[in-house]
Fold this sequence. Notes:
By secondary structure, the protein is an alpha+beta fold.
Amino acid sequence: MAACLLLPAGLAAAAPEGADPAPGLGITSGGAAYLLQLLLGLAVVIAAILVLGFVLRRTGGIGGRLSGEFRVLGSVSLGARERMVLVQVGEQQLVLGVAPGQVRTLHVLARPLEPRGTAAPAGEESFTARLRAAMGTKGGTS
């Protein structure tokens, strides 16, 4: 592709002085400068799009302010494309049915469910503790 972009510039440079560089193609000495200006402008626009996308991703985007209020606590697959989702909105928890093209509220919980802790039940070691013991480390990261 780079050869195609450089071809008109090569034709313009190969022509003798005072003659029309490429009579059949209509390429002039200003054509190469125009092509370079066009490519640089395109590169600036693409760079601006990439920078704007990076900034929006880092700042949370357009609707990023409300994302802290909504949390998906869990979900269960009910079929190939259907799911049941437990969502926390502020202090309220909702059970939602999600299918292609629709979301329905199945139930609003009167009392919120407590999230399962990562700690193991009393009398049992956690998987992490058992793995560290098996590897011979004392809880530090290596």
